[in-house]
Design goal:
The structure is a homodimer. By secondary structure, chain A is of the alpha/beta class. The first copy, chain A, has eleven helices and ten strands. Helices cover about 35% and strands about 25% of the residues of chain A. In chain A, the strands form two sheets. Chain A has a six-stranded parallel β-sheet with strand order 7-6-5-9-8-10, sandwiched between helices. Chain A has a four-stranded mixed β-sheet with strand order 1-4-2-3. In chain A, strand 5, helix 7 and strand 6 form a beta-alpha-beta unit. In chain A, helix 7 packs parallel to helix 8. The longest helix of chain A is centred in the last third of the chain and has 18 residues. At the A-B interface, helix 7 and helix 11 of A face helix 7 and helix 11 of B.
């Protein structure tokens, strides 16, 4: 059984956010990633080579298509297609908006690059952060590029798109700490850090917006080295997120 | 004066490693990056819009060409061209191979993705690491994608391509500590860290090669959270590099 023209068109259209949203699905590629996501998200369509299918006899998928390497290459959005691709349903969990009061959570204020977004989901998974709240201006986590960069982290980290300002206002009223990184923040290593609260990270070019900045209760700064060096430089947003999350969890390990 | 067909072809050919190497040059784009690099590397050719050129009257460049936005778009390798692009000479510094004995340095063992490589240069700059030693199998730091990702860090971090195994053998014989991250390493926060030595980071898929692993004197592990969680996961190489470098420098600040 081969991939029909209509299916090929369908898969390739998943590069478009609008189409993904209407259909409520996303695309994942490669044996590691697809393997990780099967069982976590309902699989609507799976296309794979004979070898991969023979190694996975008990598949739960709406439809399974056996394809040649050439066919897979035609459907794939990757430069080097890898044995299998699958279309999964997007989860539709209602977020618990009070979550940051109880557990450490992340928020993104208009992060633009899907690669950065996916990398942040991956590292959130590593550091046991299970909820990521994104402003509506943030990239779509279900874009193929973001999904690939999560390396399976999307199965364990819930991503919610929210009105970020309203969401933060609600939890600050309940006494929840809001952390954010700023060039004029206090050195990360000198600030008391809690194991609950919200860590807000900003846009690649502009950082955290003025509207959100007003809601931040604890401004952090990742010290560059040597100290007091004059610098107009900055860190990539995923890199900064990792350094901050690692420090929060280091404190927890020290307790 | 417009961009000749030959120059357009020349610029676009800088996407090819072989051509960059023969010519000994690299391409950088955008006002922030080009501004940072002017004065650090000899500029051979600069193409910019009238507005940009009027704002920069005292340029030191072999050749300056005023271009329309359309012409710039034709020459640019970026999706959204930005006012200026420039061709710089690659530096030809002979590395001091004993450097890690005196200062904290980084080494990459076959890192493949130019985006990761550029991001690592950028964070090395932030953490005051001035030398990055790359195996010959590592991506080319002068590829346009890597250069853009350095965000100017390439002006302050020297990148050297070496026979990594020989290079490390030479410094270990002189008692230099060699750090590396492994899933079976010791928790980062429990290992004494020096402010000299070499931090080796491995390939995206395979980590550090067996040959280099034998030369590592201190195996580190970035603790995931919660501790003792079963995980088959990993961190992106640039993310892992950042967490390790931040921890080395945190220790220095604590002294």
């Amino acid at each position: 059984m081969a991939l029909s023209k209509a299916k090929l068109k369908y898969i390739r259209a998943l590069e478009l956010k609008k189409f993904r949203k209407t259909e409520g699905v996303f695309l994942a590629e490669g044996p590691k990633l697809v393997g990780d996501l099967l069982g976590h998200f309902p699989c609507q369509l799976l296309a794979a080579t004979t070898e991969w299918l023979q190694a996975h006899p008990h598949l739960q998928a709406g439809e399974v298509v056996c394809v040649s390497t050439e066919e897979l290459a035609r459907a794939s959005l990757l430069r080097t297609p890898q044995q299998v691709l699958a279309v999964f349903r997007q989860p539709e969990e209602e977020p618990d908006f009070d979550m940051p009061i109880h557990a450490l959570c992340l928020a993104l204020d208009d992060v633009q690059d899907p690669g950065n977004l996916g990398t942040i989901v991956r590292l959130a998974d590593w550091f046991g952060i299970e909820h990521l709240f994104c402003s509506h201006g943030t990239a779509d986590v279900y874009s193929p590029k973001a999904i690939q960069a999560t390396m399976g982290g999307i199965a364990r980290v819930q991503v919610h798109y929210v009105n970020l300002s309203q969401f933060i206002q609600n939890i600050t009223m309940k006494g929840c700490p809001i952390y954010g990184t700023f060039l004029d923040g206090k050195p990360l290593y000198e600030v008391p850090l809690t194991q609950n609260g919200l860590i807000v990270m900003g846009n690649e070019g502009n950082g955290i917006s003025a509207e959100i900045e007003r809601l931040v209760t604890d401004k952090l700064y990742i010290p560059s080295y040597p100290p007091l060096r004059e610098t107009s430089e900055s860190l990539n947003v995923a890199i900064a997120t990792a350094v901050v999350c690692a420090e929060f969890r280091r404190r927890a390990l020290e307790l």
